[in-house]
Amino acid sequence: MKVTGRSRGGRPWSFDRTTAVETAMRLFWRHGYEGVSLGDLTRAIGVAPPSLYAAFGSKAELYQAALDHYEKTIGALKPATLEGAMSMADAVRRLLEAALAAVVDPERERGCMISSGMVACHPDHAALARDAAERRAALRRRLVGALRPFANAEEVERLSRHLAAVMQGLSIQARDGASRAELQDIVDDVVAGVAARFPKKRRPG
Questions:
Q1: What are the structural domains, with CATH classification, of the chain?
Q2: Which is nearest to 69 in space by CA: 40, 110, 27?
Q3: pTM of the model
Q4: Helix, strand, coil % in the chain, rounded to nearest 5
Q5: Which residues make beta-bridge pairs with 12?
Q6: What is the DSSP string of 64-104?
Q7: Residues 50, 8: contact at Cβ < 8 Å?
Q8: Most buried pick, 6, 46, 95, 166, via CB within 10 A?
């Protein structure tokens, strides 16, 4: 979608909003919110600061638009991930291996944008930190929904918190340079523990 307007001097400007959001997403994903300046954004997108403000309102609003885009495209928990899973351990393996593949994809930035973008921030950005925490909470709720066919609500709630922590850990270690094989060892250990705790198979539905 093209965004158009005029500069203070009357000169028209336009740029593709989706491309701008994708560019901002990659910058924020790589460097975190506080590691990206307004100048970094305008240079990468190819617009002047007034045009950026006119289109998005503020750096914080652009960051949230970038997070929304990330969640819809890259960070989504796809229902197909669990198709055919016959046990809790099988479901957990599928979820964690999908998360692992995402955080080490050589075509993308390493790690998860939501897990790492606002781990630490200035008090002035507390609203963004709360938003990031809510997005992580939403992921836990999606995990609960995905795993509910395999165990009771209390067990699934507890396990989902554990898995969310594991996923965040995979993201951080991937950013720190851990190899895929090293991260796969973590996944295997978690799955082994889940298999021991939930030995019975249960078909969803």
A1: 2-71 (1.10.10.60), 77-197 (1.10.357)
A2: 27
A3: 0.81
A4: 70, 5, 25
A5: 6
A6: HHHHHHHHHHTS---GGGGTT--BHHHHHHHHHHHHHHHHT
A7: yes
A8: 95
